[in-house]
Amino acid sequence: MTALHQLSAHELLARQDAAEVTAREIVDDHLARIAATDSDVGAFLRVTADQARAHADDIDRRRAAGEPVGALAGVPLALKDILATRGVPTTCASRMLEGYEPPYDATVVELLREADAVVVGKTNLDEFAMGSSCENSAFWPTRNPWDLSRVPGGSSGGSAAAVAAQHAPLGIGTDTGGSIRQPATLTGTVGVKPTYGRVSRFGLIAFASSLDQVGPFARSVPDAALLLSAIARPDPRDSTSIRKPLDDPQAQLDVGAAGLRVGVVREFMEGEGLDPQVREACQQAVDRLTDLGAEVVDVSLPHAPYGLPAYYLINPSEASSNLARYDGVRYGLRVDGPTTEAMMAATRDAGFGAEVKRRIMIGTFALSAGYFDAYYAQAQRVRTLIARDFEAAFASCDVLVGPTAPTTAFPLGDKTDDPLAMYLNDVYAVPASLAGTPALSLPVGTDAGGLPIGLQLMGPLLGEATLLRAARALEVDLGLDLTPRGAQAVGATG
Hints:
single chain; alpha/beta; Amidase signature (AS) enzymes; eleven-stranded mixed beta sheet; 38% helix
């Protein structure tokens, strides 16, 4: 008999509707799975077992009484520890916020509670979401469930690993320059970055405010669409929130790919440093789209190669501004000193890790007098050109495709001493972030070592429904079983 933790969110909802299982049984099964395997993976910074069981019991009580329950009732969810959660420590995996308990919920957390998703814990990340491997956490690295000697990607590596390891069928991550999509491809999960502004950022602890976006992880496209439907709502508390409601992404899921015009991004498929096995898997997936009735054409995003240097000026500049609030005075860590200046310096030195310090210094330099026009302003001009490239491409295409990342999961520690090599993992993810367009990563195969490979699908602004439709058609056609297996996979022994 299939264990509950192996089921999708849709299957868990159906089992409850048929009175075959209770929310409490589902939650207990997933908590047992976490207890048995997360010591190997390290996906969770804290497991909220008591709160999860209490929520599940309340769902069961309401069901028994004939009272309404939410659209995700009883479905376990792993929540990235960068969203304010009332009464639960929210640390951003940083010593700077160790022990901080917000007095309010982020809008996304409110919507998850309204939908009755059961949060089983807060997941690990690269500190303040700055990283591509989930090794920059102040507490511990997260490991890839497919091979525990490898990274799960970042910054949302904890949520991606939790979903891949069957700790929860659903996860929430954030994507600034690929931090949902890149871990999704490395862990064989589906990860969606919605259109910028589609999901509220209220209560999301800011990293780069013009780029940050909250989105779902799941093990299938329908589950990702279900979660996106629950969290994508207009929010008057977020000035960047899109007021136009989301078209139901589940309504078009089974329409198929016939009639879609799919553009293959030349700069991505021919990119320097692209693993030939990744290129081959992505090309085979594109060929399948042709067989499914899509019209596949070659397209160019000529300014995309400039996306990475532009991103790594905009991103640290906004981080420098946002993280200035951590001064040892208002909340979080405080290291005393003989003067206010000394106290602030000591607090920031002790509270921030190396990567965060690096980005703050880069950003502060880029924003400083005499350098603003040469660096930050120029990067914003490049950003505009990239957005125009996407706009031109979508004038003739419904969806764009290319690799999500240049390689499969790399070994832990392999790139920690070379920041540039680490940043290059984001080379294909960054352009969509700069343009604000929705994008997702879909598993399309594995390499010779059995590690998953993801195809990135990108849609026009507000085009989530079409994007998910194309991904679902390809997912059904490929029919992959992407469950971590092998001697190094989580749960493979013991």
